[in-house]
Each structure stands twice: as structure tokens, then as C-alpha cells.
Amino acid sequence: MTAPLDHAAPRREATVRRDAEALQVRVRRGSAFQAYAVARRANQTVLDVVTEIQREQDPTLAYRFACRVGMCGSCGMTVNGRPRWTCRTRVAAVAEEGVLTLEPLRNLPVVKDLAVDMEPFFEKWRRAHGYFEPGEAPPEDFAAVLPDSGPRREADAGIECINCGVCYAACDVVSWNPDYLGPAALNRAWTLVNDVRDQGQAARLDAVAGDAGCHSCHSHMSCTEHCPKALAPTFAIAGLKRATGKAALRRLWRKP
Amino acid sequence: MTRDLRRRPGFAAALVHRLSGVALALFLPMHFLALGTALQGADRLESFLSLTHNGFARTAEWGLVCALSVHAALGLRVLAIEWLSYRERTAFVVSGCLATSFAVGLLFLLSGA
User: Fold this and answer.
1) Is residue B38 in some structural domain?
2) What is the spatial distance between Cα A172 and Cα A82, in angstroms, rounded to a whole number?
3) Which CATH superfamily includes the segment(s) A119-254?
4) Where would I find the 2Fe-2S ferredoxin-type domain in this sequence (chain A) (predicted)?
5) Cα–Cα distance for residue pair B23/B17, rounded to 1 Å
6) pTM listed for this prediction
């Protein structure tokens, strides 16, 4: 039988000494940083560190996570200056000299501490028509899509996005122009442009061709560099530039 | 927060592309003004050109050749990514563009300009 928990007793982890062995963690909380010391553990992830701080040292610390295995895209944070998914980022790989600086994702409004409001991110997903359009009269039969066909391969290249917002936080164009749709929404639009079943292509190409759309991309490739799923939104956006360019030429050609 | 984001080959390429473009845009009006002096006769043009026979103008001329070649090389890279579906992820092509433009600058110097 296990002994009842004595909540009044000081917790061992809460009294980690600030020695060389402990990980020095700086967490941005509003306009200032707060320092914590966390014990180093084997195979420790950055999310483990934040969870340990919240559970053992400071219950007021706000952050967001769900699956802890790189599927849900909830735990994005800025780790030592780089946007990352924290559940799959090992401390040993990123903590230079035992120091970890954690900040919320860039380019999104902060709710509290490390938690950001993802609504602008998903709103742009909708503005880019990042949803399947079956059309007024969907076909009665299944569409035959060969796995090695060109459009299927293009869609495959970008379809594993988990909406973590890391690319959006890494994008310089979003920080310059808050209306810019961003790499994730445009990458999603490109996968749908390559969906032969979709009936809303003209409206989608119009939606992504505006001032805040694909042509604003400067090809800095920060999204492609930082994507934790190793996707390449830069090349998806390049595909949209081609598709919208061709659509504009077709319109010009058909004009009387 | 953004410090690390700037240490990327893509960002460096865009920055050099933009700065070289600004340098060329600043040079163009002066170029046309210089050519415009020819409308007032060969002597006027020659007297204007004689003003450029100094170390500063020669160095600036070398910089201009480098800016033109790097702008062209990085522009071709962007066109290759956007129109030829070239999937380049590494610093290799950006380094190649920079190396090519400095080679062109070196050739300009060796040609005895």
C-alpha cells in the first residue's frame, strides 16, 4: 500500500540547487524574463522542462501542449531564438552551455507567458481557402488518383502539416505584413490546388494571388528551414506563383 | 528573438539581392546623366568622363560590376525556384551565386579596368 501524499512536505524537485549541473531556464513572461533551474534528466525534451517548471516550481506558468509526440502541433515555442516543436526537441541538442531561453512563438498575439492565440493563423487558413470544396454537384463515383501522378506527388509533399505555427513564426514577411497569409495556409492551398476532386480552384487562386498572398513571399526559406516535419512551404508557394501566373495569362488570353 | 532566424542562406541571399538592387537603382540615374552629356557634344562627355579617372571611381566601378553580377545570379536563382520548380534547400547555390559574382569582379579587375 502506498503512503498518502503529504502536500505540506517540500518537494524534492522544487528545491533544485542552482549549480552547474542544473539547467538554467529563462522564460519570457510578458515583458520580462523569469529564471528557473531545472534538473537535467536523460532524454529530456524542452516540453518536459516546461512541464516540470509548471508542476513543481511555478503553477502560474502558462503554456500549451496536447499529444507530446509530434502529432498535434500545440507546443510550438521559441527556443533559444528558434521556433521549434518542443515535444520533439531534446534539451541536449539545443541548450548551449546549459542555458535554455524560452519565448512564445513570434508573429502571434500572446495569451499568457508561452501560450499564443492561434486564431489569426487559422483565420488565414480559411482566407486562403484551405478547405476542400466538393462543388454544387459532387461526382457520383470516386476519383481515380494515381499515387505517382504529378499532382498527387505535389500534394503529398505538403500534406503532413500539423498546423504547429512554427513556419508562421519563422516567416519574415508575416512580421513585416501582418495580413500576409503565411507559409502554412499557402502550403495547404497548394495541396488543394493539386486535388483533382476539388471544385473551388478559381476562387482559391484568386484568394492566394492578392497583395497578402503568395506573390509577397521573398523566398527567404525560413519556413522550409524551420519546419519540424521537414516540409518545404517555399516550394509550395512557388507552385502557387506559377499557378496564379498561368491563370492570369489564361484570363488575359481569353479576353476579347 | 529573431537573431537566429537571420543566419540562413535564404535570408542572406534575399538581403544581398535587395542591397545590390538598391545600389544599381542609385547608379542608373547617374549613368543616364553621364550619357546625357553626350547630347551636348563629345567634348562635354569626355570632360565628364575625365572626372571618373580616380581611385574612388575605379573602386566604385568594381563594386558596381560585382553588384550587377550578384543581382543577376541571385535573380536567376529565384527564377529557378519559382518557375522551374528547382527545389534548392541548402547554402550551396547561394554560395555559388556569390562566388560567381566575385569571380566576375575579379575578371573585371584583371582585364585592366
Assistant:
1) yes
2) 13
3) Alpha-helical ferredoxin (1.10.1060.10)
4) 23-105
5) 10
6) 0.84
The total domain count for chain B is 1
What is the distance in angstroms between the Cα of B25 and the nearest Cα belonging to chain A?
Answer: 19
CATH architecture of the domain with residue range A13-116: Roll (3.10)
Euclidean distance between the first and final Cα of chain A, in Å? 87
pLDDT digits (tens, 9 = 90+) for A78-120: 999 999 999 999 999 999 789 999 999 999 999 999 999 999 9
Q: Which residue is listed with cell 506527388?
A: A153
Is residue B59 assigned to a domain?
yes
Compare CB distances from B11 to A81, A175, A220 and report the shortest one's residue: A220
DSSP B68-101: HHHHHHHHHHHHHHHHS-----SSHHHHHHHHHH
B78 part of a folded domain: yes
Chain A hits for B81, CB-CB cut-off 8 Å, are 219, 234-235, 238
Q: Is residue B3 part of a domain?
A: no
**Domain coordinates in residue numbering, chain A:** 13-116, 119-254
Instruction: Please state the rounded mean pLDDT for residues A219-238.
Output: 93
The residue assigned the cell 459532387 is A138
Q: Residue B33 maps to which CATH number?
A: 1.20.1300.10
Q: What is the mean pLDDT of residues B44-63?
A: 83
ipTM for the predicted complex comes to 0.75
Q: At what angle do helices A183-193 and A150-158 cross, to 10 degrees?
A: 160
pLDDT in tens, B89-108: 777 888 888 888 888 888 88
Q: Do A224 and B10 touch (CB under 8 A)?
A: yes
- Structural domain for B54, as ranges: 9-110
